[in-house]
Design brief:
Largest sheet: 2 strands, antiparallel
Structural class: mainly alpha
Number of helices: 6
Order of helices and strands: HHHHHEEH
Radius of gyration: 17 Å
Helix content: 55-70%
Number of domains: 1
CATH superfamily: dinb family like domain
CATH class: Mainly Alpha
Strand order of the largest sheet: 1-2
Oligomer: single chain
Strand content: 5-15%
Length: 170
């Protein structure tokens, strides 16, 4: 049995998102699009990735709630590659402006919080299978992913914002 209660998960989700929003609120579009290397993600792409993952979590949480031991369709991909999935999801959302990415991040968070309001405590032990998140993985574990995952991306955003603010060397 997972130890986190819905109240604890909800609180950690809210705290994490507040920390992220405080971090990105002062960032302008120019800084959000700064790319230190051609192959590196910019801040906007980190934000887009965060809400893409959160959308995926919401979808899979619904499946765990509504199906007996659901299996993510990604489990059927012979050579599932998390990095390729991440890059594909970010590329699909490349047209978002900075302000739209921030709003989408807020929206998916609100959808997740609303979902929590409809989950009975005993449902946290329901399970499903996912190639990245676990086989089996409990609903509680799925719901904890956003705040754990977001922390690392906040660290990346801090580094990118500082890199952008440094004067270029000649």
């Amino acid at each position: 049995m997972d130890r986190s209660t819905l109240a604890e998960i909800r609180q950690k989700l809210r705290e994490s998102r507040q920390n992220t929003l405080r971090l990105i609120d002062p960032i302008d579009e120019d800084t959000a699009l700064f790319r230190p290397r051609p192959d590196a993600w910019c801040i906007k792409e980190h934000v887009v990735h965060l809400f893409a993952v959160e959308e995926s979590i919401i979808h899979f949480a619904h499946r765990i709630l509504n199906e007996e031991c659901p299996i993510s369709p990604l489990c059927y991909e012979i050579a599932f590659n998390q990095e390729a999935w991440n890059n594909r999801e970010v590329a699909e959302r490349a047209g978002y402006r900075w302000s739209e990415a921030v709003e989408a991040l807020k929206k998916t968070h609100q959808e997740l919080i609303e979902l929590l309001a409809h989950i009975p405590e005993e449902a946290l032990n329901r399970v499903g299978s996912h190639p990245t998140w676990g086989d089996p993985v409990t609903l509680a574990s799925i719901l904890r992913i956003p705040y754990r995952h977001e922390r690392g991306h906040r660290d990346e955003i801090v580094v990118l914002a500082k890199s952008k603010s440094r004067p270029e060397r000649s």
